[in-house]
Amino acid sequence: MKKKIPVKVITYIFLAFIAILVIFPIYVTFATAFKTTEESTKNFFSWPQNIYIGNFVKVMADAHFWDYIKNSFLITVISVVVTGIMIPMVSFSIARLMRKYKYFKILYFVFVLSLFAPFQVLMVPLTQLCTKLGLMNQAGIILIYCAFALGQGVFLFVGYYKSIPVELEEAAVIDGCTTTQTFFKIVFPLAKPMTMTVIILNTLWIWNDFLLPLLILNKSASNWTLPLYQYNFKSAYTFDYNLAFASFMFSIVPMIIMYICLQKNIIEGLTAGAVKS
């Protein structure tokens, strides 16, 4: 009689396969970034025999490279700070008033429905609107990021606020706190796990985003972000993979470090509002 393969074995094999699919592109990026062009030509997928940092030196020698990093940094930081303050406040109003006023319930469903709209459908009208309003610049893309972040952020925060006892807010009001004081002194500190989750998710998205900068910022090279610079990292006839992958490292490494350091906050934020106390 044949023995059945345990479910755990099949699960581990499947997870190992998925892990390889995720890790392999990262391995290729790291390996290629530290190889010479000649070594990459011989074997593109091999690990470098000698660590070569000349690719990084060439990338950093570009006169505009640090300008692109500054653009990415400013756009990401401003967008994340604005959404990190705006989303919790909007969500708090909706969570506490949606049962009392029908308007807030409709508003909540509008935000949730925005999650189901494919970006490809919005590309053309969004570009036309930004062109007419003069928002084909960094200020415009920050505004767009804040608008797109609202859907997911409100959905996560409203669920989280429902797990916070209303009695805490009532006690604060009895002690003389206004609604604003109650939010910033009681509710907002309790929502720290979800706030960190939204901040981390938006940081990963905005820092690595390519399509929106391509649509909004590609008219002027001075407005390029790091992903746009990497996209245009080619001459008319050739593409230097070693230099390109070295530039990719400047995008990947900061996000990997941030995610490893703060992944606990993501897990706490996503699970904290799942069970109502």
Describe the structure in your own words.
With 277 residues, the chain is mainly alpha-helical. The chain folds into 2 domains: 1-52, no CATH class; 57-272, MetI-like (MetI-like fold, Orthogonal Bundle), CATH 1.10.3720. 75% of the residues lie in helices and 0% in strands. It has 13 helices and no strands. The chain has helices spanning 7-33, 37-42, 54-61, 65-97, 102-113, 119-133, 138-161, 166-174, 179-190, 192-208, 211-216, 226-231, 241-272. Helix 4 (65-97) packs parallel to helix 7. The longest helix is centred in the N-terminal third of the chain and has 33 residues, at 65-97. It is globular and about 75 Å long. The relative contact order is 0.13. Residues 273-277 have low confidence and may be disordered.
CATH hierarchy, class of the largest domain: Mainly Alpha
Describe the sheet with the most strands: none
Assign the structural class, choosing from mainly alpha, mainly beta, alpha/beta, alpha+beta, or little secondary structure. mainly alpha
User: How many domains comprise the coordinates?
Assistant: 2
Q: Tell me the radius of gyration.
A: 23 Å
